[in-house]
Amino acid sequence: MDYPETVGELSETLRDGGYLADRGLSTALLVALSLHRPLLLEGEVGVGKTELAKTVASVFGRELIRLQCYEGIDTSQALYEWDYARQLLHIRALSEHQVADEDAVDKLFGPKFLLERPLLAAVRAGDRAVLLIDEIDRADDEFEAFLLELLSDFQLSIPEVGTIVAPSPPLVILTSNRTRELHDALKRRCLYHWIGYPPAAREVEIVLVREPGVSETLAHKVVDAVHRLRRLDLAKPPGVAETIDWARMLDFLGETDLTPATAEDTLGAVVKDRDDLELVRENLQEITSGG
To answer: Alpha-carbon torsion 15, 272, 228, 225, what sign?
Structure first.
C-alpha cells in the first residue's frame, strides 16, 4: 500500500482529513506505517490520540477496528469467542452415530463457529486495517502481557485452531491517558509519542480546520479562554476536543463573542465536573476577559 514518502507529505494528507499533526507526530506515524511498528500515543484526555487513528483509517481507505479497553477486559472480548448457539444447533442436527465421531465433534471448534473480536479481525485484515487499542492503561497487567505476541509478530494463537498470522501487518495504534504506568515490555515493542496540549496559535488553527464555519475572532477567544481554564486547578482540564465543542456550540447559537454571559450558558461543552464548574463560575470574568 502506498503512503506519503516524506513527513511533510504525510502532514498534508492528515490535514486534508481534518487532523493537524506536528512534525514529531507525523514522523512517528510515517515510521510506524513504513516499518510496521505499533505506535503508542500518550497524553491528556481529549488531545487527539483516538482521532488520529480514525483519520489515518479514513485518508488511507483502511477499516478502523477499535478495541476499547476497560478494567476486567479479557481475551474473549478482545480476541474471539465460540458461537455456542450455532454449535448447539449443529450438535442437535447430528445423528447419534455422528455425535460419536471425533472428527465431527472436532469440527465444532473450527473456523465456521469462530466469532471474530477486534484483535482477530485485525490480524485477518492485515494492512487493510487500522487497529486502535484505545485506553490500554485501563486494562490490567495480564491483558497487557497478552498483547505482546500480537505487537511482536502480528500473530495470534488459538488453541483449537492454531496460530493465525497476519498476511501483512495492520497499523496498530495504542492510546493511554496514563492512569497507570505501562510495562516496559509493551513499550519496547512500540514507537512512542507524547501528545500534549498545543500552543494557542495551533489550537486556533485546529478549531478552524475542524469547524470552518467558526469565525477566526471567535476561535481566538475560545482558545484563549480554554488556555486560562487549563491554568486553574481543575480536576478535569479541557482538552482540544472540548475547545472544538465549545466553539461549535457558540457558533450554532449564533454567538460572535465570548462574554461571561455566553460562557455561563455554554460551559457544559467545556467543563465536565461539578466542582470544576463552581470554580470556573467564580473566575468567569477573568477567563473571558483575558485578565
So the answer is: positive
Which of 93-97, 156-160, 192-196 tops mean pLDDT?
Answer: 192-196
- Per-residue three-class SS string for 46-74: CCCHHHHHHHHHHHCCCEEEEEECCCCCC
Amino acid at position 37, single letter: R
Does the structure show a pLDDT above 70 at 141?
A: yes
From the list 17, 9, 121, the residue with the least C-alpha distance to 61 is 17
Measured between alpha carbons, how far is residue 73 from residues 77, 141, 180 in Å? 7, 11, 16
Distance CA 22, CA 106 (A): 53
CB 240 within 8 A of CB 208: no
Residue 20 near residue 172 (C-beta atoms within 8 A): no
Average confidence (pLDDT) over 179-196 = 94
- Report the C-alpha gap between 147 and 189 in whole angstroms: 10
User: E-assigned strands of the chain?
Assistant: 39-43, 63-68, 80-82, 114-116, 129-134, 155-158, 162-165, 171-176, 191-195
Percent of the chain scored above 90 by pLDDT? 71
Q: For residue 258, what pLDDT band results from cuts at 50, 70 and 90?
A: very high
